């Protein structure tokens, strides 16, 4: 896979993550909605930078943010007995915009327009976060190998020449 295909794949995954956050907007209280909107707002510009020309620092931020997201999702998963997040769903109510009430393992669950359940979006978003962590780790390995493949003497001469300019 060429570098361009690699970082553009990561950009598409970041857009998918942003869309997952947008799907969760009507699912919870105002604080939950603000958090989901903020996450989407962060994902879209990051996707743009990944599409054009990502830097090492962008890959580091991408990996750390998504590792944190996986940890938060794991915590929410445990709080919700296996993927069903009670706190947000319970506060939304069955008549929230774009959300209809359904039964799920004895708990009140929600679907977006009767097509996709919130649990499915949650699992998909978690999988995307894991994928982004893996993509960031792979990109950092490739980028640091490229940097370290420059012979030490040549690297020292390049640095000296830059300092003179």
From TrEMBL:
Keyword annotations: Membrane, Transmembrane, Transmembrane helix
Where would you find the membrane-spanning parts of this chain? Answer: 5-24, 30-51, 58-77, 121-143
Protein name (record): Uncharacterized protein
What is the originating organism of this protein? Answer: Nesterenkonia aerolata
